[in-house]
Amino acid sequence: GEKWVLMKTAQTPTNIAVIKYWGKRDETLILPVNDSISVTLDPAHLCTTTTVAVSPAFQQDRMWLNGKEISLSGGRYQNCLREIRKRAREVEDKERGIKIEKKDWAKLHLHIASYNNFPTAAGLASSAAGFACLVFALAKLMNVSEDESQLSAIARQGSGSACRSLFGGFVKWIMGKEDDGSDSLAVQLVDEKHWEDLFIIIAVVSSRQKETSSTSGMRESVETSSLLQHRAKEVVPKRTIQMEEAIQNRDFASFAKLACADSNQFHAVCLDTLPPIFYMNDTSHRIISYVEKCNRSEGTPQVAYTFDAGPNAVLIARDRKAAAQLIQRLLFYFPPKSDTDLDSYLLGDKTILKDAGLEGLKDVEALS
Ligand code: PMV
Fold it and tell me: Is the ipTM of this complex over 0.95?
């Protein structure tokens, strides 16, 4: 048999929504009930690296995540693989005398190895970077000609939020109108150079895995929350326009107000769900009160907060100075547990992952 292997590697950062996606109108195609907007993190932090390989020697499609084999039988993987295979084109490596014709792709099997550069158990979104990276790497391997937006519609079928990780900077996922999902895709609003002052700090409040997955949480909210209906119809459409304006104008005061309000409404929808879903914990709430208090005392907001389907705080500081002050204060008011190794903190240039072991917080008074 033939002995060759052809490989491609891609790297994709995760993204954090500042206008949240919560609720699907179609669960199979993953079509949302509202538009969402996110910021893509610096690839040096919180990113996935995926290598995809094809060889006539491979007997079946297989995938390894952080070195451990995982099943590809789930619908989400199957949808992504099918959609990308459909678009595969001829690939030729003249030097090595390898030629894969368009029709060959249907019979060839893939091996996929994916790594997260952050602890998967840290409760930080990994599916967003993961599916975006998988689709992007496969598109490169198979010489797919579709652009990033078209690829985002494929990544969306792996995990909704993944469609926004195909671009850097600020990204909008347009919900679309079509039933087949062809117009539910991501577009770049501004690239990563547009608003370089921003600093993103992730405070890991708890590294436990969330109790309610986003999939079942969304389903329960869509079925039982009237606030979700109101949010999708009356609130998000206007808020999305205002957020786009704030981003274009680098208007931090508006940006912070909108991002915080949207995070809070998303968690209010969770509370309005039957049975209620609690993603934030006491520490999350204390961080919110603390940031609100600081912003009020400064006169103009210095920091925005946003929380996804878990208790960890994503804090967006207006500039390096505000970020430095925030970290100092966080360490003071939320001291790390004694067994937390300060040197093991990951400090980056634009994105800072702080595992401050915030569960250890005892000093509630300090914040009130
Ligand atoms: O793409 P999913 O199924 O992991 O859902 C993500 C949902 C939130 O993170 C809470 C919001 C968002 O827009 O990313």
Answer: yes
